[in-house]
Write a structure and sequence with these properties.
Order of helices and strands: HHHHHHH
Number of strands: 0
Number of domains: 1
Structural class: mainly alpha
Largest sheet: none
Distance between the termini: 21 Å
Length: about 180
């Protein structure tokens, strides 16, 4: 059963990460024709487009990509529900509906926050490696636009050490601490 839970978590992590990446790229006005934008659109369009159609016009025209964010939340809730059904064996009368709702919401929030923190770590690790190995890479421009708003506050506090920017390392450590707190 552990294999099933692993595969379920991996699938939902991937889908939620792509929806959150899509929302972040749209928020920063990063052109979606560049990678990883095209990939995020290809993976999430099946859910994001229908969600966008049901959003009120005011939300749909906002700078925040509510369609992608709501899709990530819906995926997290689906994960929580499927996880609970698999874990308890869908036995009726085993728990009250209120307990089920609280458990699903808790699982959804937990995986959503974990996906956000781990997704940011993946972006930062890619950014850090490319900044050393291939700083002129075309994807480096996109990674810089995605990571710079997160690194800017840290760069104000942490100076360059021997000409090396340690802000990405500091943020990765902070994200790791957040994951440890999350459990």
């Amino acid at each position: 059963m552990r294999i099933v839970f692993f595969l379920l978590e991996t699938l939902f992590f991937f889908l939620m990460a792509m929806a959150l990446l899509r929302a972040w790229m749209n928020h920063l006005r990063v052109h979606m024709s560049a990678q990883p934008g095209r990939f995020a659109i290809a993976v999430t369009d099946w859910l994001v487009q229908p969600v966008r159609r049901i959003l009120p016009r005011a939300l749909a025209q906002s700078r925040i990509d509510w369609g992608s964010l709501l899709s990530a939340v819906l995926l997290a809730l689906a994960y929580g529900g499927i996880w609970l059904m698999l874990a308890t064996g869908v036995s009726e009368g085993s728990a009250s509906p209120a307990t089920w709702v609280v458990t699903i919401l808790t699982m959804a929030l937990r995986i959503l926050v974990r996906t956000l923190l781990q997704g940011l770590m993946i972006l930062l690790i890619g950014y850090a490696i490319l900044s050393w190995v291939q700083p002129q890479s075309p994807v480096m421009v996109t990674l810089d636009r995605l990571c710079a708003p997160l690194l800017r506050p840290i760069r104000r506090v942490i100076p360059l050490v021997g000409g090396v920017d340690l802000s990405a390392l500091v943020l990765i450590i902070l994200l790791q601490v957040g994951l440890m707190i999350l459990g």
